[in-house]
Amino acid sequence: MRPSRLRLLSRIVSLSIAACVALVVASAIGRAEDRPEAKLPEKPFRVLVFSATGWYRHPEIPRTNGWLVRLGREQGYAVDVTETPGDLTADRLAAYRVLVLNNANELGKILDDPQKKAVEDWSRHGGGIVGLHAALVHQIGWPWLSQLGGADFDSDSDFARARLVVDPAAKDHPAVSGQGDEFWYSADWHNHDRSVSGKKGFQVLMRLDESSYEPVRAYFKERGGKAMGKDHPTAWVHEAGPEGGRFFYTELGHDLRSLDTEFGRRHVGAAMRWAAGE
User: Fold this and answer.
1) Less crowded by CB within 10 Å, the N or C end of the chain?
2) Which stretches are annotated as coiled coil (predicted)?
3) First vs last C-alpha separation in the chain
4) Quick one: which H or E segment has residue 108?
5) Per-residue model confidence as pLDDT tens digits over 196-240
């Protein structure tokens, strides 16, 4: 056989082998694409922090906003911040699974009816709200939020170390799990005008032992401020069903001293995930 014909035959055989290999690889790729495990992971949920105020403005709000952004980055969810009431629209809220009220008090004074309705509708359709510290201060001007939160403000303490008792029924909730039956913690503590204990849909996570600190600071004692006594919830959740959605409240958050600790980061991070439905 001539050398030229040998070279041609060799080229044909090589091309045939390459074609067979390509066919096998393509078939394998096709089968891999059909497998469920080949799906990409879901995107991280998004959180919108709203920190406008209608009454007293905590000077630490901007620093807390920054801390919330960093916490989200560390724990794997995205955080945006706004103080513009006009951002609370149906279209804007649709991008978020959680709305954080960072000391956003007396919202009935600064939100108009369409903005309130947008938040209410968003919550009823699966959105979760996390309230930090003064988020339940002077909210009676917005009846829906007042009922969702379950309590309002009476007075507060100075920054103080106090004994916290975890509710036995809530010991496995991620926001308090691992803390044991009781522990000591430092913060500015609120006294509420009523307790949410026993209210339908509410679950208290932890309570303050008022014998372990001075619950009413001098400023409010002079103005008739009252302690809550033996039943002093300091963090709770509310699953209000179709009329309300999910709500998480914690007294932590007056400033970063009560947030930027091992427990504070775990507590607030768990609140975000619970509110997001995870």
Assistant:
1) N
2) none
3) 74
4) helix 107-110
5) 999 999 999 999 999 999 999 999 999 999 999 999 999 999 998
